[in-house]
Structures are given as C-alpha cells and as structure tokens.
Amino acid sequence: MDLFFRKGVIASTGLFLCLFLIVHLSANCILLLPEDISRELYNSYSTTLRENLLIKLVAYILYLSIILHVVYALLVTIRNRKSTPIKYAVNHSNENSSWTSQNMGFIGFFILLFIVIHLANFWARIKLGMGEEVGTDALGNLDVYEVTSSLFHNIYYVSFYSLLMIPLGLHLHHGLKSAFKTLGFYHKKGLQAIAKIAVVYALIMSIGFGIIPFIVYFK
Amino acid sequence: MKVRFKIWRQDSPIDKGSFKVYEVDGLNPDMSFLEALDHLNEKLVLRNEKVIAFDHDCREGICGQCGVFINGRAHGPHENTTTCQLHMRSFEEGKVIVVEPWRAKAFPVIKDLIVDRSAFDRIIEHGGYISAKTGTASEANAIPVGKDIAERVMDVAACIGCGACVATCKNSSAALFTSAKINHLNSLPQGKPEEHQRVLDMTAQMAKEDFGHCTFTGACEVECPEGISINNIAEMNARFLKAKLFR
Ligand code: FES
C-alpha cells in the first residue's frame, strides 16, 4: 500500500473530526446558560440529534472516522518504528521540531483514553442504556442535561475532563496544520494562514472544552 | 583548541559497534569539522590504530557526501549546513563532541561513520531523470522557462542528496528528498512527458525501501543544507494525487 494512502486516511478523518468538534463545542456552550433554560434546550437539542436520520448517518461516519484514524495511525507508527530500529545516543530533536510533532502518537493515546471514558460516561448510558437509567425532563425528553451536570459536579471528573484537553489542544494544533499538507495543499501563503488558524482553533477547542466543566461545577 | 570526541566505531555492517572516546589537542578553531577528524586520524595512524572512516568529497558543501550526526543534530549544531562547512569554533573548548553515523534502517552502516545511501540511488533510478534530448547549452535556452518557475526549480534542484532529512526524521522518511527530485523535474518542460509516471514510480520505490511515513515534524527542512522547504512534500502529495487521477 502506498505511503500516501495511509496518511491520507489519517488526515481526512482527522479533518472530519475537527469539524465535528466545532459542532460539539457549540452544543456544550448551551451548558453555560442559566440552569432551567439550559436543561430544556440541551435536552431538546440532544433529542433532535438522536432522532434525525441524517445525524444518525453522520454519527456512523464519526465512529468510523475515529476507528480509521486510530487504526491507520497505528499502521503508520508500526512502519515508522521499523524504519528507525536504532536510536541516536544523543538527539536534540527539540532544536529542529516541536515536541508535539515528535509525539503525536503518545499524545493521541491520551485522547483515545479520554474518548473511551467519555463514551462510557455518556454514549453508553444514553444510547446503549447501560448503567444507571437516564430520566426524562418536564417536556418528556431524555434528561441528558442531568447526566452531564451530575458528572460535572464531581471534581475528579471535572479535573479529568479539563486536564485531558491539554493533549487534545496539542494534537489538534499539529494535526490541523499538517493534514492539509498531507492531502496535497501546498500554497505557501495558504499554509501560513492554516498554521495560524490551527493555533487559534486548538486554543479555542482545548480552552472551550476544558473550561466548561469547571463553569458547570461552580454554577 | 582541545576537545573530546566520542565517536561511533563499527568495523563492518555486521559488527555491533560502540562509542570510543578520543582526546584531541592542537586543533585550530578555524579548522572544519572534517579537518579535525583528519587531524585525529593522523594521530591514530602514528599510534598504529585504525583510522576513523567517514564520507567526504568536495568539502565545499556541494556534493552531499559528508554527513554525520554531531551532538544530537544532523550536520552539527547549525541549521542548513553540511558537516564539511561546520567549523571547530562552533564547539566549546574541552567539551565532548558526540559523533554518530546517520541512523535509519534504509541507511545501514558500512563502517564507522559511513552509511550506505544507495536507497536514494534506487529512488532516482525509478524516474529521477528525463528522457528528452536536451541538446547543447545553447539549445537549453531555446526552451522558455518562466523566471518564477526557474527560481522554484533551482530551490529544489539544490538538493545534494546528503540524507540529512532521513537522518533527522524521527520516522526516517525520505519524503523531502523524493519530493525535491520530483518537483524539480516535473516543474520543467523537459520533465513533462513522464510527469505522472515519475511521481508514481519514485514514490513507489520510496515505499519499497525502508523509509517511514512523513508526519511533518519539520526537522528535515531545518537540517537540510539547502534549506529545501517541507512544502515540497505537500506539493509531491498533490502531484501524486493528480497522477493517480489523470494518468
Ligand atoms: S564533502 Fe561535499 S558536501 Fe561536504
């Protein structure tokens, strides 16, 4: 299989996941509203999503993207490891490249760990009905707000969710910056712009996702 | 000037190899790094010890033969330079200088600091040339090439194939080298006839050799003696896609 294909899969699934995160963070912002409005809006929004056929399809693309992203990243890592069997006794890679770019797999592992726990906390309970049953709100919608709010009133979960947004930010920064190059975008000025956008995007995502649990905790 | 060289010694490709420390005195700070190694080798000859094998040819930064990992950096501490253009004044008096051969599966060690870079030659064999007859020098001027294209082509044609990009890459990817060769020939009218085939063949050979994937760490463009931009890899990817779609 050619070298391009594997990286192409990682880049395109990565970009799709970047888009998804924007939608996800916008939904999280509902949690910042006063409790009664927030609960109603959040629950009706999540019900709409669950019942929409198109969103269901997108959800499957999303699951597939995460799986492909991880599997192909593993394939790439295996080949890369095989290509570098002997390490240098002294290597100052920090002088020619960023720590993040040198450790995307390591950082990605933490994000995967996060996703697994995050899915167990929400997706498994709400979609698969595993664990404690989820109640309904006054409008009869599944009370997803309650699931979120109770989780974010536990300081351990709040810290976990917020702390792991640091590797997310790092991963997004290098990922977004590089994905376009992998996919063959080579316009010099355009790439410079993308590099800047990547910083802003990564900051918004990591700070946004990281701070909302704390705000809910102190609400 | 006095330094301590800690140099990788390996008798043959199958030998295990190890570091050996040499105290070297009487160096001139204006000596090039290779001259310092020559100086050490002369001492070794007098002591009846085996000299340190290292690659070199032009010693003026244009052939790409020299190239070792010095104190954790390809071609030493400076950016965009070759080992032969590095001078002893870049090092501190009395300090240890660690010298290792390029480390990559695709570049096996032959002896001491010399590695086998024929994987690069095999990539070139798969399309790194043109089939068009170029004629004499005056005929070359008969084919108009725009100034901007000529400039861009010169930037990539500057690649001397030293292998620093592979050596410094955490994945031992040859993407910068291969992209420089592809973008060089494919941007010129003389390279157009086999444009698509060239991209497919050269990247296929790159994949066949023991090189890894490019993950855009950017280390290669920093260590490349010619400062070849990493954007060339993105351009190669675009050419690859185009070749797949339109060949
Ligand atoms: S010896 Fe020719 S480039 Fe260094």
Spell out the blueprint of helices and strands.
The complex is a heterodimer of chains A (219) and B (247).
Chain A: H1 3-28, H2 35-51, H3 53-83, H4 99-102, H5 104-126, H6 144-151, H7 155-163, H8 165-182, H9 188-218
Helix pairs in contact in A: 1-3, 1-8, 1-9, 5-8, 7-9, 8-9
Chain B: E1 3-9, E2 18-24, H1 33-46, E3 69-70, E4 73-74, E5 96-100, E6 109-111, E7 114-115, H2 118-125, H3 137-140, H4 147-157, H5 164-168, H6 175-186, H7 195-208, H8 219-223, H9 231-246
Parallel strand pairs in B: 1-5
Antiparallel strand pairs in B: 1-2, 3-4, 3-5, 6-7
The structure holds FE2/S2 (inorganic) cluster.
Annotation, overall tally of beta strands of chain B: 7
What's the CATH topology label of chain A?
3 helical TM bundles of succinate and fumarate reductases
Give the helices and strands of chain A as they follow along the chain. Answer: HHHHHHHHH
**Total tally of structural domains of chain A:** 1
Description:
The complex is a heterodimer of chains A (219) and B (247). Chain A has 219 residues and is mainly α. Chain A is 76% helix and 0% strand. Chain A has a single domain, classed as 3 helical TM bundles of succinate and fumarate reductases. In chain A, helix 1 packs across helix 3, helix 1 packs across helix 8 and helix 8 runs antiparallel to helix 9. Chain B has 247 residues and is α+β, with helices and mostly antiparallel strands. Chain B contains nine helices and seven strands, in the order E-E-H-E-E-E-E-E-H-H-H-H-H-H-H-H. In chain B, the strands form two sheets. Chain B has a five-stranded mixed sheet with strand order 2-1-5-3-4. In chain B, a hairpin with a 2-residue loop joins strand 3 and strand 4. In chain B, helix 2 packs antiparallel against helix 7. The chains are: A mainly alpha (219), B alpha+beta (247). The site of FE2/S2 (inorganic) cluster (FES) has 13 residues of chain B, from loops.
What descriptors fit this protein?
heterodimer, A: 219 residues, mainly alpha, 3 helical TM bundles of succinate and fumarate reductases, 76% helix, 0% strand, B: 247 residues, alpha+beta, Ubiquitin-like (UB roll), Fumarate Reductase Iron-sulfur Protein, Chain B, domain 2, five-stranded mixed beta sheet, two-stranded antiparallel sheet, 9 helices, 7 strands, elongated, binds FE2/S2 (inorganic) cluster
